[in-house]
């Protein structure tokens, strides 16, 4: 009996996916509209395939850490991303996080079924267009802009991405205002930001596409299933 878990915060997308998969012969379907519910349903039912939207509940790319959490719990999990984001960097991040396939939401019903069947069979799936974009962009081979940052710089960058001022960052990190000024100056140099507004823009962008634990202010990954254990 084939089973699937669909995690998406748009009811119309859930309805559409459910109908397509049922017509394709998927007998058991589970649905969730947020990270916590999705993770709990996976632990409870271990579906054959998980279909995840990356943009959940207006929280940037909240589906990305969910992919990592599910794969950490069950390395055999088969995950298909179903997203409106076609940026090659985001596609690459999702695959690195553990997704086996990536599909854009403007695809046809038949392609959704094809992608589902391939991922269920343990194969990978990318549309020809996405595969070409990823290959041409070299996204997988790009230097990670966060790899050379210190833990304090990562913390400061994460707090900048949340829109916090130097003073608030100093309070949150338990350091002096001057230390925050110096840290942000180092960040501007390492990330090649021209000024503070440019640094904040980069912080927000990197926060959306970074590995889930990278920009947590306390330096630790968020556990969407912690409350269920």
Number of helices: 10
Arithmetic mean of pLDDT: 84
Shape: elongated
Distance between the termini: 28 Å
CATH class of the largest domain: Alpha Beta
What is the count of β-strands? 6
| SSE class | alpha/beta
Strands ordered across the widest β-sheet:
2-1-3-4-5-6
Order of helices and strands: EHEHEHEHEHEHHHHH
Number of separate domains: 2
In CATH, the architecture of the largest domain is 3-Layer(aba) Sandwich
CATH fold-level topology of the largest domain? Rossmann fold
Largest sheet: 6 strands, parallel
CATH H level, superfamily name of the largest domain: Response regulator
Strand content: 5-15%
Estimate percent helicity: 40-55%
Unreliable segments of 5+ consecutive residues? 211-229
Return Rg in Å: 19 Å
């Amino acid at each position: 009996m084939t089973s699937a878990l669909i995690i998406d915060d748009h009811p119309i997308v859930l309805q559409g996916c459910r109908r397509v998969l049922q017509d394709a012969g998927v007998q058991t379907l589970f649905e969730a509209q947020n990270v916590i519910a999705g993770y709990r349903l996976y632990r409870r039912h271990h579906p054959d395939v998980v279909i995840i939207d990356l943009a959940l509940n207006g929280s940037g790319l909240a589906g990305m850490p969910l992919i990592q959490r599910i794969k950490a719990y069950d390395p055999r999990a088969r995950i298909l991303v179903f997203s409106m984001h076609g940026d090659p960097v985001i596609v690459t991040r999702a695959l690195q996080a553990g997704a086996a396939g990536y599909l854009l939401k403007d695809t046809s019903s038949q392609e959704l079924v094809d992608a589902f069947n391939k991922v269920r069979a343990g194969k990978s799936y990318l549309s020809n267009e996405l595969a070409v974009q990823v290959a041409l962009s070299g996204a997988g081979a790009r230097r990670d802009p966060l790899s050379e940052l210190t833990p304090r710089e990562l913390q400061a960058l994460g707090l900048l991405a949340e829109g916090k001022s130097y003073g608030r960052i100093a309070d949150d990190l338990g350091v002096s205002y001057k230390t925050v000024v110096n840290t942000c100056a180092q960040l501007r140099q390492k990330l090649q930001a021209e000024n503070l507004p440019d640094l904040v823009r980069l912080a927000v962008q990197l926060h959306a596409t970074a590995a889930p634990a990278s920009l947590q202010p306390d330096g630790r990954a968020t556990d969407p299933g912690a409350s269920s254990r």
